[in-house]
Write a structure and sequence with these properties.
Length: about 110
């Protein structure tokens, strides 16, 4: 896969991530800053490093599964694994300007 194809695939994954919302906050998980990194292997397996707004997040069990399932809908992706981390801990500063504006924080 060329660098350009990998970049296109990364963009497609981000577009999918932007369709997933934290149920308590009307902003997608990407703009919230919950996605720390997206990796795609040469075998077209995706790995997503993400966090939650808190360790006690009510969607801690379901959100990672939703992310995996939605990313796997991309025909170029064979498999997807989500790894949850709390290092660094999520803070409001990690939100995009768009998310802060949406939530009236600007």
């Amino acid at each position: 896969m060329t660098d350009e194809q990998l970049e296109d695939l990364g963009d497609k994954i981000v577009r999918v991530l932007k369709t997933i919302y934290d149920p308590e906050i009307p902003v997608d998980i990407y703009e919230l800053g919950l996605i720390y990194d997206v990796f795609v292997s040469e075998e077209n397996d995706a790995k997503i490093l993400m966090t939650l707004t808190s360790p006690n997040c009510p969607v801690a069990e379901t959100l990672p599964i939703e992310v995996e399932d939605k990313v796997k809908t991309l025909k170029e992706i064979n498999d997807c694994e989500v790894e949850i981390t709390f290092d660094p801990t999520w803070t409001r500063e990690m939100m995009s300007e768009e998310a802060k504006l949406e939530l009236g924080m600007l």
